[in-house]
Amino acid sequence: MTDREFYEQEHPNTLTKEGEILDCATVRGVFYAAVRQKDSREVWALVVLMRRSGGYFNFTYKVLSDTSGPVEDRCPIRILDLLTPLSTCSHDQEYCRLCNAEITPADGQWLSHARPAQRPEVAGPRCYSGYPYGANAPDGGAPFHEPGGTATCSTCWARDWRDRCRANAERETQARTRARTVRPGTCLRFTRPMQFSNGEERDTFTFETRSTFRSPDSDRRYRIPRWRTDYDYEIVNPTQS
Q1: Which long-range contacts link 212-215 to residues 24+ away (Cβ below 8 Å)?
Q2: Phi and psi at residue 191, to the nearest 5°
Q3: How far is residue 75 CA from its own chain's centroid?
Q4: Which residues does residue 25 pair with via DSSP β-bridges, in sequence order?
Q5: Is 188:204 a contact under the CB 8 Å cutoff?
Q6: How many Cα atoms sit within 13 Å of 43 on the Cβ side?
Q7: Widest CA span of the chain, in angstroms?
Q8: In the chain, how many H helices and how many E strands?
Q9: In the chain, what are the domain boundaries?
Q10: Helix H segments across 98-207?
């Protein structure tokens, strides 16, 4: 059973009765799909986070849409191109880049305001402690609000997710194009050292094939998955053609 068949069986109302999958792909353990609503003809992105393990309950998943602002952002371009364009939205209010609270300038500081059902002490120049931000200010308190955040808007979240997916796809395309110049015998130096399970750290390798490298000064071999797209490197002595 394919991933598509599985989710159509698990969510028949959303994916077969009320909607239909136009295209889909599984990338790095995440299922992406363009889903068209049969009534409105609107096409939205389905994102399913999957985890497989060796235990008895060995498969779990979580279903999201692009309006949830998923962290996973490797959706293929061909699926993004099928999605219905997002409506334009504008937000005049400033938001804190650390906690996304609405903030306003006052006497050289940015202040947040308590909303209904929030404690009054959440208002003020510091980030609300209920937001997951671990850093503290130099004086030991919560960090001060800073502008540059985004609104808690599902349309903005979807737009940001789509932009990140396209940016990642462009970077991967450029990285793969560059990697075509790497031939067996080419020596690469990675920007940051690789750490292996035996505790060894090394940043310079000689490329052999696919994900296999060897040490330039010995016959020891190493495997570096996704080195073409996930790591920055420079060619030390490219093979002459």
Answers
A1: 213/188
A2: -60, -40
A3: 9
A4: 32
A5: yes
A6: 14
A7: 70
A8: 5, 12
A9: 1-89+153-177, 94-149, 187-237
A10: 154-179
pLDDT digits (tens, 9 = 90+) for 20-53: 999 999 999 999 999 999 999 999 999 999 998 8
Query: What kind and span of H or E run contains 207?
Result: strand 201-209
Residue type, 177: T
pLDDT value of position 136: 56
Tokens encoding 214? 């060897």
- Interatomic CA distance for residues 218 and 216, integer angstroms: 6
Distance CA 3, CA 193 (A): 36
Determine the Cα–Cα distance for residues 222 and 205; give it in Å rounded to an integer: 9
Residues forming a β-bridge with 100: none
Identify the sign of the CA torsion 214, 220, 223, 224. negative
Please state the rounded mean pLDDT for residues 202-219.
Answer: 92
* pLDDT at residue 138, rounded to an integer: 60
- Could you tell me the sign of the dihedral formed by the alpha carbons of 153, 154, 160, 163, in that order? negative
Mind listing the pLDDT tens digit for each residue in 57-104?
788 999 999 999 899 999 999 999 999 999 988 777 888 888 888 888
Cβ contact 10:57 at 8 Å: no
